[in-house]
Protein backbone atom coordinates (compact mmCIF):
# COMPACT_ATOMS: atom_id res chain seq x y z
CA UNK A 1 0.00 0.00 0.00
CA UNK A 2 1.07 3.58 -0.60
CA UNK A 3 3.03 4.58 2.55
CA UNK A 4 1.17 7.90 2.90
CA UNK A 5 -2.16 6.07 2.93
CA UNK A 6 -0.94 3.21 5.11
CA UNK A 7 -0.08 5.67 7.88
CA UNK A 8 -3.77 6.58 8.15
CA UNK A 9 -5.13 3.03 8.44
CA UNK A 10 -5.16 2.88 12.27
CA UNK A 11 -7.31 6.01 12.34
CA UNK A 12 -9.93 5.01 9.77
CA UNK A 13 -13.40 4.54 11.30
CA UNK A 14 -15.24 1.32 10.59
CA UNK A 15 -18.38 1.54 8.44
CA UNK A 16 -21.35 0.23 10.42
CA UNK A 17 -24.00 -0.76 7.89
CA UNK A 18 -26.43 -2.00 10.56
CA UNK A 19 -27.48 1.56 11.49
CA UNK A 20 -27.76 3.71 8.35
CA UNK A 21 -28.94 6.81 10.22
CA UNK A 22 -25.97 6.78 12.62
CA UNK A 23 -23.60 6.04 9.74
CA UNK A 24 -24.88 9.06 7.84
CA UNK A 25 -24.28 11.28 10.84
CA UNK A 26 -20.72 10.03 11.37
CA UNK A 27 -19.97 10.35 7.67
CA UNK A 28 -21.24 13.94 7.69
CA UNK A 29 -19.04 14.76 10.69
CA UNK A 30 -15.94 13.38 8.96
CA UNK A 31 -16.73 15.21 5.73
CA UNK A 32 -17.15 18.48 7.61
CA UNK A 33 -13.56 18.22 8.82
CA UNK A 34 -12.18 17.83 5.27
CA UNK A 35 -10.11 20.83 4.11
CA UNK A 36 -12.09 22.93 1.66
CA UNK A 37 -10.64 24.07 -1.67
CA UNK A 38 -10.53 27.62 -2.96
CA UNK A 39 -13.93 28.34 -4.52
CA UNK A 40 -13.76 32.08 -5.26
CA UNK A 41 -13.55 31.28 -8.97
CA UNK A 42 -17.04 29.85 -9.15
CA UNK A 43 -20.66 30.51 -8.32
CA UNK A 44 -22.52 27.97 -6.18
CA UNK A 45 -26.30 27.74 -6.21
CA UNK A 46 -28.79 25.40 -4.52
CA UNK A 47 -31.80 24.52 -6.66
CA UNK A 48 -34.78 22.21 -6.54
CA UNK A 49 -35.55 20.15 -9.63
CA UNK A 50 -39.28 19.54 -10.09
CA UNK A 51 -39.90 15.79 -10.16
CA UNK A 52 -41.88 13.12 -8.29
CA UNK A 53 -40.59 13.81 -5.65
CA UNK A 54 -38.56 16.99 -6.16
CA UNK A 55 -34.76 16.57 -6.18
CA UNK A 56 -32.33 18.94 -4.47
CA UNK A 57 -29.19 19.85 -6.43
CA UNK A 58 -26.19 22.10 -5.91
CA UNK A 59 -24.78 23.75 -9.02
CA UNK A 60 -21.12 24.76 -9.25
CA UNK A 61 -20.38 27.22 -12.06
CA UNK A 62 -16.71 28.03 -12.64
CA UNK A 63 -16.12 31.29 -14.47
CA UNK A 64 -16.21 30.70 -18.24
CA UNK A 65 -17.41 27.14 -17.67
CA UNK A 66 -17.16 24.64 -20.52
CA UNK A 67 -19.77 21.91 -20.60
CA UNK A 68 -21.49 20.34 -17.61
CA UNK A 69 -21.52 17.13 -15.60
CA UNK A 70 -24.28 15.50 -13.59
CA UNK A 71 -22.37 14.38 -10.47
CA UNK A 72 -23.56 11.57 -8.17
CA UNK A 73 -21.98 11.13 -4.75
CA UNK A 74 -20.72 7.90 -3.25
CA UNK A 75 -21.79 6.29 0.02
CA UNK A 76 -23.14 2.91 -0.98
CA UNK A 77 -26.52 4.45 -1.85
CA UNK A 78 -26.92 4.68 1.94
CA UNK A 79 -25.11 7.82 3.06
CA UNK A 80 -23.74 11.02 1.54
CA UNK A 81 -25.50 14.24 0.54
CA UNK A 82 -24.82 17.64 -1.03
CA UNK A 83 -22.83 18.83 1.97
CA UNK A 84 -20.65 15.74 2.36
CA UNK A 85 -19.90 15.83 -1.37
CA UNK A 86 -19.03 19.52 -1.37
CA UNK A 87 -15.24 19.08 -0.89
CA UNK A 88 -15.03 16.77 -3.92
CA UNK A 89 -17.65 18.37 -6.16
CA UNK A 90 -16.04 21.77 -5.78
CA UNK A 91 -12.57 20.38 -6.52
CA UNK A 92 -13.74 18.63 -9.68
CA UNK A 93 -15.62 21.70 -10.88
CA UNK A 94 -12.63 23.92 -10.16
CA UNK A 95 -10.11 21.58 -11.79
CA UNK A 96 -12.21 20.78 -14.86
CA UNK A 97 -13.76 24.17 -15.57
CA UNK A 98 -17.10 22.41 -16.13
CA UNK A 99 -20.42 23.29 -14.53
CA UNK A 100 -21.12 20.53 -12.01
CA UNK A 101 -24.63 19.59 -10.88
CA UNK A 102 -24.38 17.63 -7.63
CA UNK A 103 -27.50 15.52 -7.00
CA UNK A 104 -29.10 14.61 -3.66
CA UNK A 105 -30.77 11.39 -4.76
CA UNK A 106 -32.93 9.27 -2.47
CA UNK A 107 -30.98 6.76 -0.40
CA UNK A 108 -31.52 3.18 0.67
CA UNK A 109 -32.66 1.23 2.58
CA UNK A 110 -35.61 3.62 2.98
CA UNK A 111 -35.76 4.15 -0.79
CA UNK A 112 -34.75 1.13 -2.81
CA UNK A 113 -34.05 0.78 -6.53
CA UNK A 114 -35.10 2.51 -8.77
CA UNK A 115 -35.59 5.62 -6.59
CA UNK A 116 -32.01 6.91 -6.89
CA UNK A 117 -31.92 6.21 -10.63
CA UNK A 118 -35.24 7.98 -11.15
CA UNK A 119 -33.93 11.04 -9.29
CA UNK A 120 -30.70 11.14 -11.26
CA UNK A 121 -32.47 10.68 -14.58
CA UNK A 122 -34.97 13.41 -13.71
CA UNK A 123 -32.10 15.83 -13.09
CA UNK A 124 -30.42 14.84 -16.36
CA UNK A 125 -33.65 15.48 -18.25
CA UNK A 126 -34.17 18.81 -16.47
CA UNK A 127 -30.62 19.93 -17.22
CA UNK A 128 -30.97 19.08 -20.91
CA UNK A 129 -34.36 20.79 -21.21
CA UNK A 130 -33.16 23.90 -19.37
CA UNK A 131 -29.65 24.08 -20.80
CA UNK A 132 -30.07 27.63 -22.07
CA UNK A 133 -31.30 28.96 -18.72
CA UNK A 134 -28.53 27.07 -16.92
CA UNK A 135 -25.90 28.40 -19.30
CA UNK A 136 -24.70 24.97 -20.44
CA UNK A 137 -24.18 23.39 -23.85
CA UNK A 138 -26.76 20.60 -24.36
CA UNK A 139 -24.23 18.83 -26.60
CA UNK A 140 -21.70 18.61 -23.76
CA UNK A 141 -23.47 17.12 -20.77
CA UNK A 142 -21.56 14.35 -18.99
CA UNK A 143 -22.49 12.02 -16.13
CA UNK A 144 -20.16 10.93 -13.37
CA UNK A 145 -19.69 9.98 -9.77
CA UNK A 146 -17.73 8.09 -7.19
CA UNK A 147 -18.31 4.50 -6.00
CA UNK A 148 -22.07 3.83 -5.83
CA UNK A 149 -22.57 7.18 -7.54
CA UNK A 150 -20.33 6.07 -10.40
CA UNK A 151 -22.39 2.91 -10.80
CA UNK A 152 -25.51 5.07 -10.79
CA UNK A 153 -23.98 7.31 -13.45
CA UNK A 154 -23.29 4.26 -15.63
CA UNK A 155 -26.94 3.22 -15.17
CA UNK A 156 -28.11 6.71 -16.20
CA UNK A 157 -26.06 6.38 -19.39
CA UNK A 158 -27.63 2.99 -20.14
CA UNK A 159 -31.15 4.30 -19.55
CA UNK A 160 -30.58 7.39 -21.69
CA UNK A 161 -29.32 5.21 -24.53
CA UNK A 162 -32.17 2.72 -24.28
CA UNK A 163 -34.94 5.32 -23.94
CA UNK A 164 -33.52 7.78 -26.49
CA UNK A 165 -33.17 10.26 -23.67
CA UNK A 166 -30.90 13.28 -23.36
CA UNK A 167 -27.59 12.99 -25.16
CA UNK A 168 -24.68 12.21 -22.81
CA UNK A 169 -21.25 13.17 -24.07
CA UNK A 170 -19.00 11.46 -21.50
CA UNK A 171 -18.90 9.19 -18.42
CA UNK A 172 -16.54 9.95 -15.51
CA UNK A 173 -16.59 6.85 -13.30
CA UNK A 174 -14.40 6.77 -10.20
CA UNK A 175 -14.18 3.35 -8.50
CA UNK A 176 -17.62 2.35 -9.81
CA UNK A 177 -19.81 -0.23 -8.11
CA UNK A 178 -21.32 -2.08 -11.06
CA UNK A 179 -22.04 -5.71 -10.18
CA UNK A 180 -24.21 -7.13 -7.40
CA UNK A 181 -23.02 -10.70 -8.04
CA UNK A 182 -19.64 -10.17 -6.33
CA UNK A 183 -18.01 -12.91 -8.40
CA UNK A 184 -14.79 -11.18 -9.50
CA UNK A 185 -11.39 -12.04 -8.03
CA UNK A 186 -11.21 -8.77 -6.09
CA UNK A 187 -14.71 -9.22 -4.68
CA UNK A 188 -13.97 -12.77 -3.55
CA UNK A 189 -10.56 -12.02 -2.06
CA UNK A 190 -10.73 -8.53 -0.57
CA UNK A 191 -12.52 -9.39 2.66
CA UNK A 192 -10.59 -7.10 5.02
CA UNK A 193 -9.71 -4.05 2.91
CA UNK A 194 -10.15 -0.55 4.41
CA UNK A 195 -13.54 1.17 4.38
CA UNK A 196 -15.20 -1.26 1.98
CA UNK A 197 -14.82 -5.01 1.76
CA UNK A 198 -16.86 -7.92 0.44
CA UNK A 199 -19.18 -7.96 3.46
CA UNK A 200 -20.00 -4.25 3.51
CA UNK A 201 -20.70 -4.29 -0.22
CA UNK A 202 -23.03 -7.27 0.16
CA UNK A 203 -25.01 -5.16 2.61
CA UNK A 204 -25.00 -2.23 0.18
CA UNK A 205 -26.61 -4.36 -2.51
CA UNK A 206 -29.07 -5.94 -0.09
CA UNK A 207 -30.26 -2.52 1.08
CA UNK A 208 -30.46 -1.16 -2.45
CA UNK A 209 -32.24 -4.07 -4.12
CA UNK A 210 -34.33 -5.46 -1.27
CA UNK A 211 -36.10 -8.54 -2.62
CA UNK A 212 -35.95 -7.36 -6.25
CA UNK A 213 -33.83 -9.14 -8.84
CA UNK A 214 -31.00 -7.00 -10.18
CA UNK A 215 -31.42 -5.46 -13.63
CA UNK A 216 -28.80 -3.67 -15.73
CA UNK A 217 -30.22 -0.34 -14.51
CA UNK A 218 -29.41 -1.41 -10.95
CA UNK A 219 -26.14 -3.23 -11.71
CA UNK A 220 -24.77 -2.03 -15.09
CA UNK A 221 -22.36 -4.98 -15.36
CA UNK A 222 -25.42 -7.10 -16.07
CA UNK A 223 -26.12 -5.23 -19.32
CA UNK A 224 -25.57 -7.54 -22.28
CA UNK A 225 -25.04 -4.75 -24.82
CA UNK A 226 -22.73 -1.82 -24.06
CA UNK A 227 -22.56 -0.45 -27.58
CA UNK A 228 -23.60 3.11 -28.26
CA UNK A 229 -22.64 4.37 -24.80
CA UNK A 230 -20.68 7.60 -24.27
CA UNK A 231 -16.87 7.57 -24.04
CA UNK A 232 -15.60 7.03 -20.51
CA UNK A 233 -12.81 7.61 -18.03
CA UNK A 234 -12.76 4.84 -15.42
CA UNK A 235 -10.51 4.88 -12.36
CA UNK A 236 -9.95 1.90 -10.07
CA UNK A 237 -8.05 1.41 -6.82
CA UNK A 238 -5.69 -1.52 -6.28
CA UNK A 239 -6.99 -2.75 -2.90
CA UNK A 240 -10.69 -2.38 -3.67
CA UNK A 241 -13.34 -5.11 -3.94
CA UNK A 242 -14.94 -3.32 -6.91
CA UNK A 243 -11.60 -3.02 -8.75
CA UNK A 244 -12.06 -5.90 -11.15
CA UNK A 245 -15.65 -5.08 -12.12
CA UNK A 246 -14.43 -1.63 -13.16
CA UNK A 247 -11.61 -3.13 -15.21
CA UNK A 248 -13.91 -5.71 -16.79
CA UNK A 249 -16.51 -3.03 -17.62
CA UNK A 250 -13.72 -1.10 -19.33
CA UNK A 251 -12.79 -4.14 -21.42
CA UNK A 252 -16.40 -4.76 -22.39
CA UNK A 253 -16.91 -1.13 -23.38
CA UNK A 254 -13.81 -1.31 -25.57
CA UNK A 255 -15.01 -4.52 -27.22
CA UNK A 256 -18.33 -2.75 -27.87
CA UNK A 257 -16.62 0.08 -29.72
CA UNK A 258 -16.71 2.63 -26.89
CA UNK A 259 -13.60 4.73 -26.30
CA UNK A 260 -12.35 4.37 -22.71
CA UNK A 261 -9.42 5.61 -20.65
CA UNK A 262 -8.65 3.36 -17.67
CA UNK A 263 -6.47 4.49 -14.78
CA UNK A 264 -5.61 1.84 -12.19
CA UNK A 265 -4.13 3.54 -9.11
CA UNK A 266 -1.50 1.34 -7.41
CA UNK A 267 -1.26 1.31 -3.63
CA UNK A 268 -4.72 2.83 -3.09
CA UNK A 269 -7.94 1.54 -1.56
CA UNK A 270 -11.62 2.34 -2.04
CA UNK A 271 -12.26 5.99 -1.24
CA UNK A 272 -8.69 6.67 -0.19
CA UNK A 273 -8.71 9.91 -2.19
CA UNK A 274 -10.57 11.34 0.83
CA UNK A 275 -7.17 11.40 2.55
CA UNK A 276 -6.48 14.64 0.78
CA UNK A 277 -3.04 15.22 2.32
CA UNK A 278 -1.63 12.23 0.43
CA UNK A 279 0.00 13.12 -2.87
CA UNK A 280 -1.56 10.12 -4.60
CA UNK A 281 -5.03 11.37 -3.55
CA UNK A 282 -4.27 14.79 -4.98
CA UNK A 283 -3.17 13.16 -8.23
CA UNK A 284 -6.35 11.08 -8.37
CA UNK A 285 -8.62 14.10 -8.03
CA UNK A 286 -6.53 16.10 -10.49
CA UNK A 287 -6.73 13.25 -13.01
CA UNK A 288 -10.52 13.11 -12.75
CA UNK A 289 -10.75 16.85 -13.31
CA UNK A 290 -8.29 16.74 -16.20
CA UNK A 291 -10.19 13.92 -17.92
CA UNK A 292 -13.41 15.92 -17.68
CA UNK A 293 -11.70 19.06 -18.93
CA UNK A 294 -10.39 17.19 -21.99
CA UNK A 295 -13.80 15.69 -22.70
CA UNK A 296 -15.55 19.06 -22.47
CA UNK A 297 -13.02 20.63 -24.84
CA UNK A 298 -13.54 18.05 -27.58
Give an account of the 3D structure.
The protein has 298 residues and is α/β, with parallel strands linked by helices. It contains 10 helices and 8 strands. Strands 1-2-4-3-5-6-7-8 form an 8-stranded mixed sheet, sandwiched between helices.
List descriptors.
eight-stranded mixed β-sheet, 298 residues, Rossmann fold, alpha/beta
CATH topological fold name: Rossmann fold
Could you describe the largest sheet, including whether it forms a barrel? Answer: 8 strands, mixed
Name of the level-1 CATH class? Alpha Beta
Distance between the termini: 36 Å
Principal-axes geometry comes out as globular
Helicity range? 25-40%
Which parts are unreliable, with pLDDT below 50 for 5 consecutive residues or more? none
Please tally the β strands and state the result.
8
List SSEs in N-to-C order: HHEEEHEHHEHEHHEHEH
Mean pLDDT: 95
Number of distinct helices? 10
Q: Which CATH-level-2 architecture?
A: 3-Layer(aba) Sandwich
CATH superfamily: Alpha/Beta hydrolase fold, catalytic domain
Decide which structural class fits the backbone: alpha/beta
Q: Biggest sheet: strands side by side, in what order?
A: 1-2-4-3-5-6-7-8
Tally of discrete structural domains: 1
Strand residue percentage = 15-25%
Tell me the Rg in angstroms.
17 Å
